[in-house]
Amino acid sequence: MKKYVYRFGGGAAEGGAEMKMLLGGKGANLAEMANLGIPVPPGFTISTDVCAHYYTHGGYPKSLTKEVKAAVRSVEEITGRKFGKAGNPLLLSVRSGAPVSMPGMMDTVLNLGLNDETVVGLTAVSGNERFAWDSYRRFVQMYGDVVLGMKPEDKHEEDPFEVIIHKVKKARKIVLDTELELDDLKLLVKEFKAAIKKRTGHDFPTDPEEQLWGAINAVFGSWMNDRAISYRKLNDIDENLGTAVNVQAMVFGNSGDNSATGVAFTRDAATGEKRFYGEYLINAQGEDVVAGTRTPNPIAKLEKEMPKVYAQLTKIYKKLEKHYRDMQDIEFTVEDGRLWMLQTRSGKRTGFAAIKIAVDMVEEKLIKKEEAIKRVPPSALEQVLRPVFDTKDHDQARKEGRYLCRGLNAGPGAASGIIAFHAEDAVALKKEGKNVILVRIETSPEDIAGMAAAEGILTARGGMTSHAAVVARQMGKTCVAGCGELEIDYKTAQMTVAGKVLKAGDFISLNGTTGGVFMGEIKTIPSEITRVLVDRKLKPEKSEIFQAYDKLMGWADEIRQLKVRTNADQPNQAREAIAFGAQGIGLCRTEHMFFGENKINHMRAMILSEDEAERRKHLKKLLPIQRRDFEGIFKAMNGYPVTVRTLDPPLHEFVPHEKEEIEAVAAEMGVKPADIVKKVEELHEMNPMLGHRGCRLGISFPEITEMQARAIFEAAVNVAKKGTPVHPEIMIPLVGHVRELQLQERIVRRVADEVIGKSGLDIPYLVGTMIEIPRAALTADYVAQVAEFFSFGTNDLTQTTLGLSRDDAGKILAEYLDLDIYPTDPFATIDRGGVGRLMKIAVEDGRKARPGIKLGICGEHGGDPNSIQFCHELGLDYVSCSPYRVPIARLVAAQSTLEDRKAKK
Amino acid sequence: MKKYVYRFGGGAAEGGAEMKMLLGGKGANLAEMANLGIPVPPGFTISTDVCAHYYTHGGYPKSLTKEVKAAVRSVEEITGRKFGKAGNPLLLSVRSGAPVSMPGMMDTVLNLGLNDETVVGLTAVSGNERFAWDSYRRFVQMYGDVVLGMKPEDKHEEDPFEVIIHKVKKARKIVLDTELELDDLKLLVKEFKAAIKKRTGHDFPTDPEEQLWGAINAVFGSWMNDRAISYRKLNDIDENLGTAVNVQAMVFGNSGDNSATGVAFTRDAATGEKRFYGEYLINAQGEDVVAGTRTPNPIAKLEKEMPKVYAQLTKIYKKLEKHYRDMQDIEFTVEDGRLWMLQTRSGKRTGFAAIKIAVDMVEEKLIKKEEAIKRVPPSALEQVLRPVFDTKDHDQARKEGRYLCRGLNAGPGAASGIIAFHAEDAVALKKEGKNVILVRIETSPEDIAGMAAAEGILTARGGMTSHAAVVARQMGKTCVAGCGELEIDYKTAQMTVAGKVLKAGDFISLNGTTGGVFMGEIKTIPSEITRVLVDRKLKPEKSEIFQAYDKLMGWADEIRQLKVRTNADQPNQAREAIAFGAQGIGLCRTEHMFFGENKINHMRAMILSEDEAERRKHLKKLLPIQRRDFEGIFKAMNGYPVTVRTLDPPLHEFVPHEKEEIEAVAAEMGVKPADIVKKVEELHEMNPMLGHRGCRLGISFPEITEMQARAIFEAAVNVAKKGTPVHPEIMIPLVGHVRELQLQERIVRRVADEVIGKSGLDIPYLVGTMIEIPRAALTADYVAQVAEFFSFGTNDLTQTTLGLSRDDAGKILAEYLDLDIYPTDPFATIDRGGVGRLMKIAVEDGRKARPGIKLGICGEHGGDPNSIQFCHELGLDYVSCSPYRVPIARLVAAQSTLEDRKAKK
User: Fold this and answer.
1) What are the backbone angles phi and psi of residue B577, rounded to the nearest 5°?
2) Interchain proximity B687–A688, CB inside 8 Å
3) Candidate from B688, B736, B808 with C-beta closest to A691
């Protein structure tokens, strides 16, 4: 017969930590602790199989009643107490426990087994009648709420039990629950029962057996309550997992001054420091620690108050950490001088702590490097790389009372700027050189441009997986989300919080690492790691987090196969990326070099030229400018490969639209402004994304490609002559047919042969292509006959594969994510089914045609963990991402390799 | 040892018709005739292998000299003449002959073997000194030109020999070549030789052996002349085929009044009528028939003039037609009463003749039905389906001298309209309801919209494979191309031809079947087939071409596997298509139904609505309009399946832009015009092709899909109630993710169940999707789980797969076709490498997921022969095209099946 109930306690257990799927996290860990000889209140776990049975058959397996009865008997034996007997009664807790933690989402019943007889027994045993009746009062209240449905009847009503308590307190003229006296408690029990009878038509159950089954039903039933369902949806938890039910003997931290209850972490969850860290309260229950009505003591004080217990606790926490090989979050209760462990689990921690603990544990030989790599989520790394508040300025703000409120710490780092309530405003202000904080009730894909322009994002609604939170993390933006206290009024362009009114344009500051929001400006400074690596203003040995980061990255680099490059258009970006570990430039956008006062008019004149001769005249002026830019980049990259993309965007993006701009260009070209206007109109396209851009420009105007190739190779020669090795990789964009690549490749090679030949140097270079329109992927076997490398331009590839322009996708994406059409934003995370399949075709066919072909990705997906993992699976040679995401890519690349190894085992 | 020379003549030959690749078309047919016992002047063919050897080794195989010498000897034996001997000299012709006909592209030398001695022999044998010297004069001139390079030295110069002739004629005060007397001819020979000596520094070769090798060299050399190279490129002929060289004894049709030369067709090449048809000249050479200086006699007259020869010729032509089982184009010469056949080949013919001859030959049991199907090119069918001039009006125009000139008959049919010199003008005039003829120097893809708007296209430059010709045929437009006499001046917007000036806006008429161009308007009437099938104004038995067409189509329908549907949005189109053999509607665009005065304002109001309630109000007004349209179509289709596509284009295509339109909509909606303007601006998109359109509209506004589904099913019920079966197939456009389809499918099925359920009828219907963006094809295995059919929307699929917007592709395509990046316009013929591969993936994966899935195509490629063939190869169930292309699709579908059978053999 199938076993449904697993007992634990008395130094042994039928289950264990590895049985999480069957017993849930809590049940498995309780069993594990019991097996380790750690004192846990005895009890049993009803498995998740019963939950499945409950929902598929609408009831329990036949054998369950008998199994539960026997398990209760077993608890009675271990404790020496009797369930439902007046003399020395056994009280039980009934708690949920799913395989995946869903904190607070499901129901719990404590003190189960109390009735008018057993309360007398509890009094006798504890010698504390008030305690016994307070327990009884709490039980009736909790059972009434959870099992009997005594909830407010509509949202305007108060909790029915709190109404009664309030009435009694008012009559007795007291304020705190602790001021309630024995008679008050007895009265409350009576009135609670009467209220239950009135509402439900039934007496409160006095039979402990009946109470127990009522509680078990309620816990299984809570798997499908609204909160649990939406939590699972948000966190992508499988509904079929089900919950287990843990029934356990009650122990009481509130049974006198020789009792206590506490929570602790085996290491510091904020910094990762190796110190036992927690708090406790004498004569209290767990909820008292959380409620904050009494101030708990730091755990160190327990050593003085209960030296024996503290010694035992120390032994236990060390045992647990060593056993689980991870920092533990533990709960304990001392009942009458006896220590009971109620829970242990891996503790939640900040990014700083995650890195520090993982690295420390390797050095302590608790775990291996590989395990350390696996344990650090990419978000942890992101957190430690983000800017922070300048401490002095921050303290000053606190002192001045500029703290406003706290939301979810959705995007780590610190940011300060002026408030913009609309994405367009954020973009406009950013253009004026201002730092902006985008403040929205919630964000949608329409706000993407504004989010990109903002230093930080603040929202009133939405959780850790809301649009704002997910996109902010992906973009590396500071974000405080779901700050419910904000009242935002778009119409008046102001918001109210903590009694203060802030308007658009006012300064505000966000601490995305803690969730804190402050009025006014607070200076930010780069992260410690940035200060060590990039600014070199902090000595490595002075920064613990840098040292941990550095070790971790070193291990990641040992493990990973995927190389990491950066997208950089300027020498300073290139230097920054190298400090973060970039192994080359995967995308240098030449067109970005054209912006800026001095360059843009030459560029415009070139575009608007009537014929090749005129175009060449203006190109000649652009040549030295481009050459200088490339020299800077080649120097900075010091021998690492640099992929330079030839001119890509539609020409009309460059042309002047403002009157003054038009006049300036007309003067430069010696023509009438009206001629410029006409030419600009001619360049207009219906669908510029699918228009005259990419290699199509170089094919129409081969002299542009020629000039760019010349600038690249002349720069390469100049830099190489001074002894710095140079490895240019020339990338032709928007190729759809191998002939396009071929025509452009010939120009590049002709110029290269000429320039390099004349120099007498040996400068190895590659010519390759972006794979960014479907046809290139579908004909990769042909394209690879010319291309020495492919670089996936997944931004454009996503647009064409999905038939969706990013510029116009705002509203559509918002709707599509809402309706679950797309599981994630396909512009943030690679759409594996469509775009991914094309990539796979291109990789396979490209390698068949040219076995050694170099493969990389330079779309923005190159910095997204899920997409990096996919690139690893595809077997690409490298990913390329923005400089600050390079460390994240290094880590994820290593994690991907470890995933592989696991899969191969 | 390899054999290079194949002899023929004297009633036998070493080669035969099946050796075309080795002997070229002419050589193989000469051998074949010889084998059939038909008199051909004896000779020999130097094989194409020698050509290959010539170009790979730069010279001839060693054994060739010996083989040629022996073959000349053999000709001497058969003719009893001696090559290079003064007494009864053998003269030779040396001609090219490639495996694929390249008329006029390569060189020929006639009368070879003449010199100062043999000319005396020729005089003696022919008894005609003038003839002998004229032959000699022609030989020196031809040899000088072809072998010795006596061409004009630059393009301003005249032919050097013509200069001499002109001088002599002027001195003698005569005009025609025939007026030259013996002494003049002798003088010319002398002067020609002197000119050759002067220019080349060498004497004219007198040794016949040397002459022969010179001519052979020249013919092989001409394989690579510029004309031949560009002809092969235009006609996609493999350069490696090479040419053969035919050396043959000369026979003279100009050796006296008992001699003659002629050309003939075994059937009428214009109408296909079974009658011997041709012309001849007494005492003339072939070039005299072509030159038109003398008017040839109709072939029937030969019966009287040379009854014996005529009897023999009749026997021969019948034998040849029966032998080759096709209408033959023959050339013959009578020398001194003796008949020689110089050439036979399948005759070129009009579309009318192609159909009639193919059908007649089946009835004569000369060929099988399958062969008849294979022999009719799609263009033939197109020709017989196009409109023609009203005969009376046409005669009147001729009488009034309105004939202007003749160009190439590039797109059959007749068209009349006003001249537009620019594509945009053509589009604008068409919108005003005018018939337009687009007149261009030449067209480029930029002109596509104008070509589509025009009734006919006239160009001054370009051949039968020029852009104008190819696209016009693809579009089914009347086209006269390469009309060199036109002088078009875009600046003054006028053209000059035949001394007349025509301006933009003037009427002009084109006969695309003959190439004739006329001033003024000439009424056009539909083709005979249309008059029989659609207008029912002509009785079938009165139209021979209809009867042939009808039989041919019947056979095609027996053979083909691919079904043919039509794209039709209106009942009259549907009826027309059915008359042409459509088996259903493959694409009914519901949005086309919205245009028109009464409907557009409801539509606009719906689009500009603020909320769902308002939208529903306007949709309610649209419902009865749509329902009525569908009723009309369902009735017309009489049980054939009708694929209805839900709303597809970006909404902003519908919105008003003109002031009056805006005011009308504002009035309809009861809002201010300014509100409308604002809303219109909001709907603007950067890349509408990749924006809010297709199913995205139905997902944002499910009520639109709901209304359309209701209109479809209510119409279906109404029509079915009256006893007409209805098979609606609802097609959701622009699906990229199966979830999109699923959401729309649910709406359609809900409405269908409700409407059909209430009716109590059984109306089978399908729900499926367009495959028009790459992601749909790449995830076809998922999409097919919901879709009951796929219809490839290859217009859009081409845009996204190639990353090229059709609206913006004009200039790019022109350049890309020029540079050979695209072999053909990918919007006209499916790009098999890219788009085709996606289609293949979708077909395979779709069938795996849903084995019985119905597959079709509804893009414009559905009417393109090459693309239809590809659809057959993919195993689609049907193609859908515009009504007038339905017969073409039926024919090509049958041809594709026959191709398959051939491949399987």
Assistant:
1) -65, -40
2) yes
3) B808
Whether B740 sits inside 8 A of A834 (CB atoms) is no
Work out the angle at residue A429's Cα, subtended by the Cα atoms of residues A656 and A424, and round it to the nearest 5 degrees: 80
How far apart CA B147 and CA B442 sit, in angstroms, is 36
**How many beta-carbon pairs under 8 angstroms link A with B?**
169
**With contact defined as beta carbons under 8 Å apart, do B387 and B524 qualify?**
yes
Catalytic residue among B51, B588, B695, B858: B858
Q: Do A838 and B778 touch (CB under 8 A)?
A: yes
Question: In terms of pLDDT, which residue wins out, B39 or A475?
Answer: B39
Which residues touch A669 (CB under 8 Å, ≥6 apart)?
A605, A608, A609, A676
Average pLDDT score over residue span B224-236: 80
List strand residue ranges (DSSP E) for B672-819, in order. 727-732, 766-771, 789-792
Active site residues of A: 467, 858
pTM for this structure?
0.85
* Predicted pLDDT at A588: 95
Question: Sheet harboring B108-112: ordered strands across?
Answer: B12-13, B5-9, B43-46, B244-249, B92-97, B108-112
CA distance A84 to A73: 12
Question: Three-state DSSP class for A173?
Answer: coil
pLDDT at A593: 74
* Residues A567 and A772 sit within 8 Å (Cβ to Cβ): no
Mean pLDDT computed over every residue of chain B: 92
User: Could you count the other beta carbons within 10 Å of the beta carbon of residue B753?
Assistant: 11
B127-172: pLDDT as tens digits: 889 989 999 999 999 999 999 989 887 767 788 998 999 999 999 9
Query: B766-771 and B12-13: which strand pairing?
Result: unpaired
Contacts of B705 (CB under 8 A, 6+ apart): B646, B647, B698, B744, B747, B748
Compute the distance between CA of residue B821 and CA of residue A695 in angstroms, rounded to an integer. Answer: 12
- The Cα–Cα gap between A337 and A332 comes to 12
The phi, psi pair for B282, rounded to 5°, reads -75, 145
Query: Rounded to an integer, what distance in angstroms lies between the CA atom of residue B391 and that of residue B404?
Result: 18
pLDDT, tens digit (0-9, with 9 covering 90-100), for B71-98: 999 999 999 999 999 888 999 999 999 9
Q: What is the pLDDT of residues A718-765, one digit of tens each?
A: 999 999 999 999 999 999 999 999 999 999 999 999 999 999 999 999
Angstroms from A50 CA to nearest CA on chain B? 34
Confidence tier at A123 by pLDDT (50, 70, 90): very high
For residues B492 and B517, is the Cβ–Cβ distance under 8 A?
no
CA distance to B4, B20, B59, per residue, from B23 (Å): 10, 5, 19
**Of all residues in chain B, what percent carry a pLDDT higher than 90?**
70
Handedness of CA B760, B766, B767, B770 (dihedral sign): negative
**Catalytic residue at B858?**
yes
Q: Which two tokens stand for residue A820?
A: 């679950």
SS3 label, residue A462: coil
Long-range contacts at B265-268 (CB < 8 A, ≥ 24 apart): B265/B327, B265/B328, B265/B329, B265/B330, B265/B347, B266/B317, B266/B318, B266/B320, B266/B321, B266/B327, B266/B328, B266/B330, B266/B347, B267/B321, B267/B327, B267/B347, B267/B353, B267/B357, B267/B360, B268/B353
Q: Name residue A722's amino acid.
A: K
Classify A418 as helix, strand or coil: strand
First to last CA, chain B: 33
Query: Would you give the end-to-end CA distance of chain A in angstroms?
Result: 33
Q: Average pLDDT, whole number, for chain A?
A: 91
Could you tell me where the beta strands, DSSP code E, fall in B814-868? 854-857
Of A685, A736, A779, the CB nearest to B803: A736
The ipTM of this complex is 0.84
Cα–Cα separations (whole angstroms), residue B31 to A610, B38, B39, B93: 60, 10, 11, 16
